[in-house]
Design goal:
Rossmann fold, alpha/beta, 12 helices
Length: about 300
């Protein structure tokens, strides 16, 4: 089955004036609409393209967009305005733009997109009909705790000692920092394949980030978020999510599986799915489990 896609632009008002966000919709736009929000901030949607295509084949239409500053969208002269509230504002403008022609909108957020969408449905509970958060805990405090307690001790000790030394020296420009992490972290905890097997649509997300957006938010360490996102915490508020919600975790991810399972028990209409063979990219490495859980959730709510 050939899935069609349509590219378009969404006008976004920023503190620096109006810009256009690139967007694309896969599938028949008359079908139930999903807004699929990628990780980041500052990265592209590319690694989610196969997921969008699968959902289009199942009778949904799927929109993805590039936030201002990302590779496909307009660039701003600076990104000093890009804090958490800004990204909520931008997402809300996208939601309103889409809902101007839709009765209902389903929201799916992955990674940073999951954090953002958790916060969004808490702020705007009446704009979204169903919600899926994949590979996203409810606080960065929990993310950092799990990284220190579980992920870092799992690395080969000699490799982690080298990375840790560079972190302590604040020497992130040393080529050995990223080289080592690409050996011990990304093929284990993100996309569980040798780097030589990573397809272009995955690599593109990693090779085109806007570091002016990403680094001030998260910093350079994949197991410990250091930046303005560090203080984000919605753990006490999760119970206030009222719309049908699916939380998805995975076995080798940096987002705590047990915590995500707890989140599903806290919301008022929650469902939980664990993916046993994947890291952060559960939608790819546990494709069948991930997609079936979302299809079944959407069909039953």
């Amino acid at each position: 089955m050939t899935v069609t896609s349509t590219e378009f632009k969404i006008p976004i008002n920023t503190p620096l004036g109006p810009f256009n966000a690139w967007a694309t919709t896969y599938g028949n736009p008359d079908n139930p609409r999903i807004l699929l929000v990628q990780g980041g901030p500052g990265t592209t949607h590319d690694y989610l393209i196969p997921t969008a295509q699968s959902f289009a084949e199942k009778g949904y239409s799927v929109t993805m967009f590039g936030p201002i500053g990302t590779d496909y969208s307009d660039k701003a002269p600076n990104y000093d305005f890009c804090n958490f509230d800004w990204f909520i504002n931008e997402l809300d403008q996208v939601v309103d733009y889409l809902k101007s022609t839709l009765n209902e909108l389903i929201l799916i957020g992955h990674s940073w997109g999951g954090y953002l969408c958790i916060d969004y449905v808490l702020r705007y509970p009446n704009k979204i009909s169903k919600f899926v958060a994949s590979n996203a805990v409810s606080s960065i405090e929990e993310y950092n705790r799990f990284g220190s307690a579980v992920i870092e001790p799992s690395y080969p000790s000699d490799k982690w000692a080298l990375v840790k030394k560079l972190i302590e020296e604040n020497n992130f420009s040393d080529p050995k920092f990223n080289e080592t992490l690409w050996q011990i972290h990304y093929p284990i905890h993100v996309y569980r394949h040798p780097l030589s097997e990573w397809p272009d649509y995955v690599m593109r997300t990693f090779t085109t980030p806007n570091l002016e957006q990403y680094l001030p938010a998260c910093g350079a360490i994949p197991t410990k978020i250091r930046g303005w996102l560090e203080n984000w915490n919605r753990t006490d508020d999760i119970k206030n999510i009222t719309i049908p919600t699916l939380f998805i975790s995975s076995e080798y991810d940096t987002n705590t599986p047990e915590h995500i399972k707890w989140m599903a028990s806290e919301v008022q209409n929650g469902t939980y799915q664990h993916c046993p063979n994947s890291g952060h990219f559960a939608h790819l490495d546990d494709k069948e489990v991930w997609e079936n859980s979302v299809f079944n959730f959407l069909a039953s709510n």
